[in-house]
Design a protein that fits this description.
Layout: H1 2-6, H2 8-37, H3 40-62, H4 67-86, H5 90-110, H6 118-124, H7 136-163, H8 166-206
Helix pairs in contact: 2-3, 2-8, 3-4, 4-5, 5-7, 7-8
Amino acid sequence: MSSGLAHSPFHELLFATAMNMLFEFFPLLLFLGALFLKDIYAAVTVLMIAMPIGLAVKTVRTGSIDKMYLWSTIFALALGGLTLYFRNPYFTYWKPTAFYWVVGVAFLASTWVGDKPLAQRVFGLVEGINLEKISPSQWKNLNLVWVAFFVVAGLLNIYVAYNYSEKTWATFKVFGLMAFSFVFMVAQTLWIANIIGDEDEDEEAEH
């Protein structure tokens, strides 16, 4: 396992994940601040302004569009707009859940539709990692784990939204779900490192 982790691409993946989530954290932090200082409608307005700006800045810095961030921004604008128009915060409460579940359906469909599961495509974006050692069945199983993650994350969000105060939900949305996502990504990286590391050790033993 240690040999897999020793490869710099895995460190790069963890670093990229942390930086990506940190980048997305700032609009959410502004959302939370506006909620505590004023109300949900002010917070939604701030989020609807901050997310497109964040997407634009990130696109300029990286030279490519983060599709997950793009769709998250679209969901924020659509459900945020409904929240402001109908003066009903439940549209915003449901935004993370709707986003997670739609993405989960996309991951589930990619298990059987397309040449590669979405989980494989996500990790395939990281250069320098030899993913050929991971079998198609292992990618399929990993993809289904992602589906389970999105389902659970969506359930957690809506459970907190309906059973706790608005400020508690917002705090959980910003800090709880972010931490949950990061821990999940670290676990995925360790899983891949373990598989590749074990296979590298087997190859060395044969020689």
